[in-house]
Design a protein that fits this description.
alpha/beta, 6-stranded mixed beta sheet, 10 strands, about 65% helix, elongated
């Protein structure tokens, strides 16, 4: 039998936990079993103790007790069954139980931390290698919620799951011991437990249903919240903040209602726990006396063990329902991880060590999953340290072409060669480490200038020298060194403490710190005023010839000095050449220049 398939079919959640914990699950189960055995034997030893204290039995009569536990522990070990010895035995067994219980709790915490760490680290790794095209279509609210709130709920689910399993092991131990003491009475109690379980199953279905809805609504809330933060300026300026805020409030009310329903089921289970326990125990006693005509005294040990077992059975049901209350998050985590695995970017194995010759696009085509053709029959060579500009109307395919050149997207058909090596053969992260990428909305982290540029590299003499060289090349050295705290100055959220031009120069400095071969600039100056754009453009011109620079530009003034310009139209290359050549051969380019009064 394929044990993995068996586990997945019949123990779905256990199979999921096993995927992360492996052998640790069996260690946890084994210790739970040991706790139950020690507790059961300790309880059983109270029977001869009570007989010595309350009855007229003498020592020899207790020693010949036919109870299997007494026989195993006392007679087989050759212990004289007097009050002192039995008391010491009880003390030893409960002390060992306490030690086992401590170990059980300790390793449960350790394994729980290990489990959550593995989930977080593996999903971070998977997200890092997630295909860019699939990421563009992903629900950012779900991603954020899964990595934050859902992980915490999975952590809670793990705790409830293994508590319910622990209690289930204890139930098995107590029932097994009770069967050895009085099998008739025990079977009657077990039948009662089966009927109770049928009642609980109805409640479980409701809890699981509400849990899944809770997870879905949490994704929606996080998605709305992300957009509210991202679009705050627009919502504030247009007076739509309150209307959008009402959407968030409605979602909060929906989540609150689902939590309340789950809580009501939990409360109901807690309320019926004790009455049902008493009902099963006394029902079994009544049936035992009525049908088998036996007195209660003969089932004393079974009664103690079964009461203990049924108590843990009820506790197990309660813990299981609490687990189901969080199982929606566990289901979501499983499907989220699976989606990340299935969406992993295609990757080669050849390490890229540095750019030496040229980039080649041959008969390249690209379309998204929707079937929309974005690039068609693209043929171009880009030489080392060349400055190439890409221009065209919105929707012409400029950004898609740059995304392919930078390795974010892979060709649909045709080929993309880097120094004669197909990009599919390259280990992509090694290639991307040689890329500097500067976008319209400069990427600034809420940290110091040094950490923004060095990307949190230790401030060693070597790294600091690289930092100084990078800010000098980016023409922002004077600004930084005149600040009171210099490179240790904080930039604030999204660089709120600095201007747009300073943000772009810091972005350029970060890419130069990396010692890259390529600089990709996607509308890097379009959000700046004319004077600041001119300064940044001068900065870029100083870098010309040192790097292979590829620029997407809306303002044609910024690319007049490019070695070549590609004019895109409807996914095709309409024309290619330097500024003067395009003015000669392309009517469309001339019209673009005239519209911008160049």
């Amino acid at each position: 039998m394929d044990y993995k398939k068996f586990l997945k079919n019949y123990f779905h959640y256990l199979s999921y936990f096993y995927g992360y914990l492996r052998y640790r699950i069996f260690i946890a189960f084994g210790i739970s079993l040991l706790v139950g055995l020690l507790d059961g034997i300790g309880l059983a030893l109270f029977i001869p103790l009570f007989k010595l204290i309350t009855s007229e039995s003498n020592v020899s009569e207790v020693g010949t007790d036919k109870d299997f536990i007494t026989d195993l522990v006392i007679n087989q070990l050759g212990i004289t069954p007097n009050l002192t010895n039995i008391f010491l035995l009880i003390f030893v067994f409960f002390s060992l139980k306490g030690l086992a219980k401590y170990i059980e709790t300790f390793i449960r915490i350790i394994y729980q931390q290990y489990f959550i760490r593995k989930i977080r680290i593996s999903n971070i790794d998977l997200l890092s290698h997630y295909d860019f095209e699939k990421f563009l279509k992903a629900n950012t609210g779900r991603i954020q919620n899964t990595f934050s709130g859902e992980v915490n709920r999975v952590n809670i689910a793990y705790n409830y799951y293994f508590k319910s399993v622990q209690f289930g092991v204890l139930v098995l131990v107590y029932v097994s011991l009770a069967l050895g003491s009085d099998w008739k009475f025990t079977l009657l109690a077990v039948v009662g437990g089966v009927f109770i379980n049928l009642i609980f199953k109805i409640l479980y279905k409701r809890t699981k249903y509400f849990s899944k809805k809770f997870t879905t609504q949490s994704h929606i809330f996080q998605n709305l919240l992300v957009q509210k933060v991202h679009l705050f300026k627009y919502l504030k300026a247009t007076g739509l903040n309150d209307i959008y805020g009402q959407k968030l409030k409605n979602n909060i009310i929906e989540i609150e209602g689902l939590q309340r329903r789950i809580g009501m089921v939990d409360a109901l289970l807690g309320a019926i726990r004790e009455p049902l326990t008493i009902l099963v125990v006394f029902g079994a006693i009544f049936l035992k006396m009525y049908f088998f005509d036996e007195v209660v005294g003969s089932i004393l040990l079974s009664l103690i063990l079964l009461y203990r077992g049924i108590t843990f059975f009820m506790a197990m049901q309660e813990q299981w329902n609490l687990f189901l209350g969080n199982s929606g998050s566990l289901d979501n985590m499983q499907s989220f991880t699976q989606e990340l695995k299935q969406g992993r970017e295609r990757n080669g194995t050849e390490i890229f060590k540095g750019f030496t010759d040229k980039l080649q696009l041959k008969d390249l085509n690209f379309e998204f999953d929707t079937g929309e053709k974005v690039l068609q029959n693209i043929n171009v060579n880009i030489h080392k340290n060349e400055t190439l500009a890409i221009v065209g109307e919105s929707g012409a395919g400029k950004s898609t072409l740059m995304n392919i050149l930078s390795g974010l997207l892979l060709p649909g058909s045709g080929s993309y060669l880097i120094d004669d090596t197909p990009i599919e053969h390259l280990e992509l992260s090694s290639f991307k480490k040689h890329i500097g990428y500067i976008v319209q909305d400069a990427t600034i982290f809420n940290d110091t200038i040094y950490n923004n540029i060095s990307f949190w590299a230790p401030k060693t003499p070597e790294n600091y020298a690289r930092f100084l060289k990078a800010i000098e090349k980016a023409a922002i050295s004077d600004y930084i060194m005149n600040l009171p705290q210099k490179e240790d100055s904080l930039l604030g959220a999204n660089g709120i403490n600095i201007s747009g031009g300073q943000k772009q120069r810091l972005s350029i400095a970060r890419e130069l710190y990396k010692e890259v071969d390529f600089l990709f600039m996607d509308e890097a100056t379009s959000a700046l005023d004319g004077e600041t754009e001119s300064l940044i453009q001068q900065n870029i011109n100083h870098l010309k010839g040192e790097f292979t620079i590829i620029i997407i530009a809306h303002r044609l003034a910024t690319i007049k000095n490019a070695d070549r310009i590609i004019l895109m139209k409807n996914g095709h290359i309409s024309a290619i050449g330097n500024f003067e050549k395009l003015m000669e051969i392309s009517k469309e380019f001339r019209e673009m220049v005239q519209l911008q009064n160049l």
